[in-house]
Amino acid sequence: MQQQVWTMKIRPHEKLWHIDIKEIWRYRDLIELFVRRNIVVQYKQTILGPLWYLIQPILTVIMNMVVFGGIAKMSTDGMPQALFYMAGNICWFYFSDCLNQTSNTFTANQNMFGKVYFPRLVVPIAVVISNLLRFVIQLGLFVALYLYFFVGGAPIVPNWAILLIPLLVVMLAGLGLGFGILISSLTTKYRDFTILFTFIVQLWMYATPIVYPLSMVEEGPLRTLIMANPMTSIIEAFKYATLGQGYFSWLALGYSFLFMSVLLLFSVVIFNKVQRNFMDTV
Amino acid sequence: MKAIEFNHVGKQYRLGLVSTGTFSHDLSRWWAMNVLGKEDPFLKIGDTNIRSKKGESEFVWALKDINFSVEQGDVIGIIGKNGAGKSTLLKLLSRVTAPTVGEINVCGRIASLLEVGTGFHPEMTGRENIYMNGAIMGMTKAEITRKLDEIVDFSGCERYIDTPVKRYSSGMKVRLGFAVAAHLEPEILVVDEVLAVGDAEFQKKAIGKMQDVSKGEGRTVLFVSHNMAAVQKLCKRGILLEDGAVKYSGGIEDTVRMYIDDGTTPSQSVFYDDLSTAPGNDKVRIKSFEVLPVKGDVVSVASGIHFRLTFMNYYPTFHLDAAFVLHTADDTIIFNSGKVVSPHCQSKIGEYVVEFSLPPFMLNRGKYYMTIWMGEKNKYRICEKYSHPFMVEDAFPDDPYLGKPRPGILKMEINASSQFREVYGK
């Protein structure tokens, strides 16, 4: 008579902090496949294909140059407008793409989730990684543009803070993922949040120094509000590192990092709780 | 060793629009559970899962107090009507949703085929989707690559393997999906009604594969289907669900019989004393239909069965036929044989008796129906059809071979002989 062993126990409730990282690691091949699917599927049956990765920021930057630089005559701290807008926008794109594409994790995948189990976090993680590719391509565009202006003698000086860029990217990804899965967890039951969040993300962009430099905002409650935005210090640090102009502060970056860590932990716990029963309410 | 164990498992659903007023419900529930530390207040109320009845509560138990266990290597058929809770049970097992109460213990990796082709992306090719589907089910890329040829071969979609899946027919999608799942090598395979879409050849292939999986490789299979023939062919044991509870659990033959059986216990013989209400019309009236053992006291496999139909005929000078159709509880016809009661249009007003017997060792134990037709010269019937159920009991409980219940509609002595011949050399 063999000893009875159970490899898995299914209970109505798991501990709140029970997050199975090992399990996600076991499904790493699935993450890779999801990443590839996200990339390949996006531009199937399009003529320009991955070129859209470049067209989108170029058009946005041109529009910014016309509206904010040309019509509104907003300062860019003496930096070339194209570079200034490009720096802010590619960072924002990465964050907002991560957020938008993970925020419907449950509703968009309910067919698949309803039939088979795998760690649900695999899906948003794959989104973050596939967007990273897009970010890297856009970063390449930024570098090309940068060299063009650098050779042309524009007053841009890169500095040591360039080494921080990987950390900045991780923070962008963490914030996007954290907010995204939090929204997706909230929207399985109450769809109102979907509409609310689309609106909030739109407004949020204007509370982040993308089309204007932080130095333009005078001391006061408005500046406090903008500094409270965890995106601010990341984008300013990116501009400082590459263009040599911008607001750089360890304190502000530390705040953003702490904000991201707490948010991510909280969101993962909520997400984990929701995934067990969301099929009944979605 | 057990592979699966259900302990008092229940799953509760809330009816109606889920998102109406749940904020307040959720708040009070959260308050009671997390702050006051009480039991979930919504668990106490709740009806059982009976679809056709109007319940009093808006909470319903799709499954209630489910207890059973499955031994390793068993092939279990789960049967039941629509809404009995079969799919919910599989969903709990495959962790798509969590139970409300109770616990499920599992030993081994589970792969579920709740609906094949899960995660197929229409834009991607068959090959890409094999990888995708396999990975969703928990395979690694290396594993899939190793089995890719086998999977493609089994699916029979070789020609279209680099075509996007959106160009596939629904049957091809199922074939591809099943092929992936069949090569998963999980310890426990959960299959829900997947064979309905494939053609006959593929169904045969799929059932064969599942048999291999269980017999050859000693893995556990849970199979949900409405196709009783497939269930009986594949499974050794069965679980019958009814209204969210286990109604019966045991050998597959008995489980299927319980499911098909409408619940009436048949009386072996019927006598209609009042002719005005007896079955029939103003032309013929059935007085009695008797099902008797040829020898012994009980109609059993070994007794032989004698049928005697007595009826009144009020319709003179015509050609009267009586036909007897024997069928099983699930309406499979065993035979349809008739007797010309009055040839040459010689019927008379009065009582007729038609009798015949079936030999011993013909019908297996179980419930059968005898349907009687009466008509004129094979042309039209002169009285509504009359159906009578009867039971055949098991015989020889002591006999080591014949005493054992055997599957099948018939239980026949085949009078086989065997000879031995010595063969020299190779």
Average pLDDT of chain A works out at 85
CATH class of the largest domain in chain B: Alpha Beta
Estimated structural class of chain A? mainly alpha
Biggest β-sheet strands, sense, barrel of chain A: none
* Domain count of chain B: 2
Residues in helix, % of chain A: 55-70%
Quaternary state of the chains: heterodimer
What fraction strand of chain B? 25-35%
Structural class of chain B: alpha/beta
Give a short summary of the structure.
Chain A is mainly α and 282 residues long. Chain A has helices spanning 21-26, 28-42, 52-71, 81-102, 105-108, 110-113, 122-151, 165-187, 192-206, 221-228, 230-243, 250-275, 278-281, and one strand at residues 8-10. Chain A starts with 7 loop residues before the first strand and ends with a helix.
Structural write-up:
The complex is a heterodimer of chains A (282) and B (426). With 282 residues, chain A is an all-alpha fold. Chain A has one domain (28-280). Chain A is built from 13 helices and 1 strand. Chain A has helices at 21-26, 28-42, 52-71, 81-102, 105-108, 110-113, 122-151, 165-187, 192-206, 221-228, 230-243, 250-275, 278-281; one strand at residues 8-10. The model of chain A has no long low-confidence stretch (mean pLDDT 85). Chain B starts with a strand and ends in a 34-residue tail after the last strand. Chain B contains 8 helices and 18 strands. Chain B has 426 residues and is an alpha/beta fold. Chain B is globular and about 80 Å long. Mean pLDDT of chain B is 79; it is low at 17-21. Chain B has 2 domains: 70-261, P-loop containing nucleotide triphosphate hydrolases (Rossmann fold, 3-Layer(aba) Sandwich); 270-392, Coagulation Factor XIII, Chain A, domain 1. Chain B is 22% helix and 33% strand. In chain B, helix 6 links the parallel strand 7 and strand 8 (220-224). Chain A binds chain B through residues 2, 4-13, 26-27, 29-30, 32-33, 37, 40-41, 44-45, 111-118, 189-191, 276-277, 279-281, and chain B through 1-2, 5, 13-14, 18-19, 22-23, 26, 91-110, 112, 114-115, 118-119, 121, 123-124, 128, 131-132, 135-141.
